[in-house]
């Protein structure tokens, strides 16, 4: 099996390597070296076109005839050459404003970004959220509410302290607001303008943007809070393997033992931390335009590791205009958010309608002892042993 896999990988490299070498320079004599109809059509088809023949064809100011020669100077670069220099970021520009993007007068990533944002991003994002809601509905119909199996004891155990619940609800409240306002920004043009008109949408859009930009700080603070408070309970250990092998006991009788957080919850925790951090960093890049350029450097690192080649994406571009950095930051921010939203939908389901007794943990902070015994048996024992030892040490020795 391993050999077959290696052979497949090898054959892929063998197939892809000559492909890159085969690229022969097209005959552009008919256009005097300028781009041909084939070049334009290939670009319109979205194919990669080697633009070096244009990038390098930007004239030579030093080669201009001297002023004293007959008819004076014609300059060292023609208008088309100057436009090409602007187009490829090679022109020497001085601008009155010295912002990071001020000297990039032309960048051509905008259309690619726009079509991706309106097309695949919106479509697959909507499928992902819609599909998750459908699956959760289906799961509810098949499995129903996960009930407390045993008899309730009427006794309560403290599960989360007030500060933990505060951190959780700050994270949850801000995430829901960010999710809704983010979706309004992405789908507003397609869904809200046809339904409510431009004027109403303009007000909603301005409000959404304000909420989205400002509430983001609450999300980031809460993310740090829950990381600090809960990371210790979310480190993987041996109980997680057993819990996962038994599928969390979702479809079987009896629940696998678990500590404070079971493996399913640990996966939620780490998804929130990893995706939440990625969303936060790309969000900061969008909040402070052109200040935090990460994509060209990341693409260069990935290229040096050969990852994009191995996945069939060829070499990723290592030189990006500042605007393109922003475009990638926006797409990444939205993609990571869609994935986290889908995960959080499942989390909200299990924390409310999906499981009897779960909500109390974040509501009042106290859970029914029987619920705790069924879902977090090791944790209950630890808590009770601690209680006992502290009550014993509090009792004066006779
Ligand atoms: C808005 C509705 C939400 C409800 C009703 C809810 C409910 C809960 C409950 C009941 C728990 C405790 C589970 C237990 O006792 O074991 C919990 C834990 C947790 N929540 Fe939420 N939550 C919500 C939203 C969110 C959001 C938006 C996030 C993050 C963006 C989040 C992140 C977490 C994390 C990381 C944990 C700890 C791990 C886990 O139990 O899965 N929650 N939530």
TrEMBL record:
Q: Which GO terms describe its cellular component?
A: formate dehydrogenase complex; plasma membrane
The record's listing under InterPro entries reads: Cyt_b561_bac/Ni-Hgenase (IPR011577), Di-haem_cyt_TM (IPR016174), FDH_cytochrome_b556_subunit (IPR051817), Formate_DH_gsu (IPR006471)
Which positions are tagged coiled coil? none
Highest taxon listed in the record's lineage: Bacteria
**One matching Pfam family, short form?**
Ni_hydr_CYTB
What processes in GO biological process is this protein linked to?
A: anaerobic respiration; formate oxidation; respiratory electron transport chain
Q: Is the keyword S-adenosyl-L-methionine assigned to this protein? A: no
Per the record, the major location class is membrane
Domain Cytochrome b561 bacterial/Ni-hydrogenase, which positions?
A: 159-358
Transmembrane segment boundaries? 121-142, 166-187, 215-232, 267-288, 331-350
Cofactor dependence is on: heme
Q: Does the keyword Lipoprotein apply?
A: no
Q: Which UniProt keywords apply?
A: Cell membrane, Electron transport, Heme, Iron, Membrane, Metal-binding, Signal, Transmembrane, Transmembrane helix, Transport
| Localization terms from the record | Cell membrane
Q: Name one GO molecular function term.
A: formate dehydrogenase (NAD+) activity
The record's Gene3D superfamilies line, in alphabetical order, gives: Transmembrane di-heme cytochromes, Chain C
Signal peptide per UniProt:
1-20
- Write down the membrane topology: Multi-pass membrane protein
Family note: Belongs to the formate dehydrogenase gamma subunit family.
Q: What protein is this chain from? A: Formate dehydrogenase subunit gamma
Recorded source organism is Sulfitobacter noctilucicola
Q: What lineage does the source organism belong to?
A: Bacteria, Pseudomonadati, Pseudomonadota, Alphaproteobacteria, Rhodobacterales
């Amino acid at each position: 099996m391993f050999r077959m896999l290696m052979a497949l990988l090898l054959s892929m490299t063998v197939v892809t390597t000559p492909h890159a070498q085969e690229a022969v320079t097209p005959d552009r004599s008919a256009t005097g070296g300028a781009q041909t109809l084939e070049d334009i059509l290939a670009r319109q088809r979205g194919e990669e076109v080697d633009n070096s023949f244009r990038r390098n064809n930007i004239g030579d100011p030093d080669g201009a005839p001297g002023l004293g020669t007959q008819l004076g100077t014609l300059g060292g670069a023609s208008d088309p050459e100057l436009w090409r220099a602007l187009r490829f970021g090679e022109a020497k520009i001085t601008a009155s404003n010295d912002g990071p993007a001020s000297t990039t007068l032309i960048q051509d990533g905008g259309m690619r970004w726009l079509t991706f944002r309106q097309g695949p991003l919106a479509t697959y994002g909507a499928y992902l959220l819609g599909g998750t809601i459908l699956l959760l509905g289906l799961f509810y119909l098949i499995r129903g509410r996960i009930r407390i199996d045993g008899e309730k004891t009427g006794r309560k155990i403290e599960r989360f302290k007030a500060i933990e619940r505060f951190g959780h609800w700050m994270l949850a409240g801000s995430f829901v607001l960010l999710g809704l306002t983010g979706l309004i920004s992405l789908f507003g043009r397609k869904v809200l303008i046809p339904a409510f008109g431009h004027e109403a949408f303009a007000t909603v859009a301005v409000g959404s943007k304000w909420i989205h930009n400002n509430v983001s700080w609450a999300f980031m603070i809460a993310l740090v809070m829950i990381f600090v408070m809960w990371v210790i309970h979310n480190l993987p250990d041996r109980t997680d393997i057993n819990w996962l092998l038994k599928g969390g006991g979702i479809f079987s009788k009896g629940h696998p033992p678990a500590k404070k957080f079971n493996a399913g919850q640990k996966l939620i925790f780490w998804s929130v931390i990893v995706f939440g951090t990625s969303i936060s960093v790309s969000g900061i890049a969008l909040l402070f335009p052109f200040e935090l350029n990460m994509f060209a450097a990341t693409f260069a690192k990935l290229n040096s590791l050969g990852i994009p080649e191995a996945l069939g994406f060829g070499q990723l571009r290592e030189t990006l205009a500042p605007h393109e950095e922003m475009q990638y930051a926006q797409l990444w921010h939205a993609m990571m958010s869609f994935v986290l939203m889908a995960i959080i939908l499942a989390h909200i389901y299990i924390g409310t309608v999906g499981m009897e007794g779960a909500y109390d943990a974040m509501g009042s902070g106290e859970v029914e002892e029987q619920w705790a015994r069924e879902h977090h048996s090791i944790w209950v024992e630890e808590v009770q042993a601690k209680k006992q030892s502290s009550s014993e040490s509090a009792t004066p020795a006779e």
